């Protein structure tokens, strides 16, 4: 189901929560709206849902205009044929699991037999077929969120909106639910707009990430594209950890030679981000560094701090171009003060065409 937003703005007094936003979301995909608190992602979702009235602009769902400020169109949420899953489970405590899920169909005055059959089938599809007669609040957090998802799905909405639906779950359960949502989307072929501030959640779920800042889209694309090829410093800083430092790129027959301040050659070859030479900001992800002995080629460095994180270790390494963050497999240990060398392959060094 296509969703098209055109010149959308939403002001709260002097604050522009959404600032002239235009975007078409991918049909049949999970689009994750990502960003820090107050960036405009949730307001955008609520405007699409009809829970907030935009200041101006237009929204269409499946080719139908549901909001247009210039024409006075503003369909209520119930007429937008969408389902929504909230951060809170929004479950009625006095109802059973089946009764909670059946609510949207009862609101549409569907026949009782159809309501019961579809509610049971939907609960089975989310793994709750054996829990239908239990009180909804007697379930675990993960099960309650599945009830919320089932209630969203039972009426076969054209569009599914999810607003931080996993934030109240513990870490292990969040990972499990990500997988379940992904499998659900593949099975249904649904269009899902998913709001989160969690970077790992976004990258594990999304077909496309839309990164917001100050009511605008900073960059959109596949998770790998935003992570490895950010267009601006904000994206590099926001997604994961990044080593950022000023460099000069010099054209060569084989691509670019990247030289850090002080004359240290970091890489030579096909480097992403710039076609020609000039000053730039280099980005190297911590896991991209190759560690060698202190007398090998590359940047010489000394370990200032090491942190064990289970499956990996994070090292802070002091080098001639500054302190760098390095990730390595957790099975290899390092000592504070230990010397080493760092190199990076050209394909893992990305240039942002802006001065540091």
TrEMBL record:
Pfam families: ABC_tran, TOBE_2. Residues 3-239 form the ABC transporter domain. SMART domains: AAA. Keywords: ATP-binding, Cell membrane, Membrane, Nucleotide-binding, Translocase, Transport. InterPro entries: AAA+_ATPase, ABC_transporter-like_ATP-bd, ABC_transporter-like_CS, ABC_transpr_MalK/UgpC-like, Mo/tungstate-bd_C_term_dom, P-loop_NTPase, Transp-assoc_OB_typ2. One of its GO terms (molecular function) is ATP binding. The keyword Transport applies. The keyword ATP-binding applies. PROSITE patterns: ABC_TRANSPORTER_1, ABC_TRANSPORTER_2. Belongs to the ABC transporter superfamily. This is Iron(III) transport system ATP-binding protein. It comes from Bosea robiniae. The lineage of its organism: Bacteria, Pseudomonadati, Pseudomonadota, Alphaproteobacteria, Hyphomicrobiales.
């Amino acid at each position: 189901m296509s969703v098209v937003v055109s010149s959308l703005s939403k002001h709260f007094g002097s604050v522009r929560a959404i600032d002239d936003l235009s975007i078409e979301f991918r049909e049949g995909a999970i689009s994750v709206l990502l960003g820090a608190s107050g960036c405009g992602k949730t307001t955008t979702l609520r405007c699409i849902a009809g829970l907030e009235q935009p200041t101006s602009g237009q929204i269409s769902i499946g080719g139908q205009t549901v909001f247009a400020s210039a024409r006075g169109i503003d369909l209520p949420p119930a007429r937008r044929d969408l389902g929504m899953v909230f951060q809170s489970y929004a479950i009625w405590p006095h109802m059973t699991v089946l009764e909670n899920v059946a609510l949207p169909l009862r609101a549409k005055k569907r026949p009782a037999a159809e309501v019961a059959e579809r509610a049971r089938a939907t609960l089975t599809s989310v793994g709750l077929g054996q829990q239908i007669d239990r009180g909804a609040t007697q379930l675990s957090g993960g099960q309650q969120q599945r009830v919320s998802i089932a209630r969203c799905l039972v009426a076969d909405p054209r569009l599914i909106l999810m607003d931080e639906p996993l934030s109240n779950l513990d870490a292990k359960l969040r990972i499990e639910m990500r997988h379940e949502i992904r499998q659900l989307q593949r099975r249904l072929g649904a269009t899902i707009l998913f709001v989160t501030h969690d970077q790992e959640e976004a990258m594990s779920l999304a077909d496309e990430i839309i990164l917001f800042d100050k009511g605008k889209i900073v960059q959109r694309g596949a998770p790998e594209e935003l992570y490895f090829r950010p267009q601006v410093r904000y994206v590099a800083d926001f997604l994961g950890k990044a080593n950022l430092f000023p460099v000069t790129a010099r054209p060569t027959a084989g691509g670019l030679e990247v030289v850090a301040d002080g004359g240290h050659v970091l890489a030579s070859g096909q480097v992403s981000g710039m076609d020609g030479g000039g000053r730039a900001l280099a980005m190297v992800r911590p896991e991209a560094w190759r560690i060698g002995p202190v007398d090998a080629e590359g940047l010489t460095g000394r370990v200032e701090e090491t942190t064990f994180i289970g499956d990996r270790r994070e090292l802070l390494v002091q080098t001639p171009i500054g302190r760098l963050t390095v990730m390595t497999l957790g099975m290899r240990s390092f000592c504070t003060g230990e010397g080493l060398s760092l190199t990076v392959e050209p394909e893992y060094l990305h240039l942002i065409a802006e001065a540091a």
